Amino acid sequence: MDTLLYLLARALVAGLQALPLTVVARLGRFGGGLAYGLCVYWGFAFAPSAHAGVFVNGGIPFWTIVIMAVTSGFRIARPTVVALLLSTAGLLL
């Protein structure tokens, strides 16, 4: 089963890489929640539920800010960087 999921994920990524960015952005806008849910629940199979809950809830704001900064050139304020570093430290503990 894991091999099948891996092969499907590789095929999906290869297919998305061939598409123009505008099409991928539209797919992400409408199918992003499904992709996120599939990845998260697939990862739950490898971690206890207590760990999964902490990482998912703690990771959403972190990755939202990081992806926004990378994709739009948004400059992250110093207090936000400090907050992200503290949250990352807490997640790693």
Question: How do you describe this structure in short?
Answer:
The protein is an all-alpha fold and 93 residues long.
Structure description:
The protein is mainly alpha-helical and 93 residues long. Helix content is 85%, strand content 0%. It contains four helices and no strands. Helix 3 packs antiparallel against helix 4. It is flat, with a radius of gyration of 16 Å. The model has no long low-confidence stretch (mean pLDDT 77).
Q: Determine the strand fraction and express it as a percent band.
A: under 5%
Structural class: mainly alpha
Q: Outline the biggest β-sheet.
A: none
The radius of gyration computed from the alpha-carbon positions, rounded to a whole number of angstroms, is 16 Å
Q: What is the helix/strand order?
A: HHHH
In helices, the fraction of residues equals: over 70%
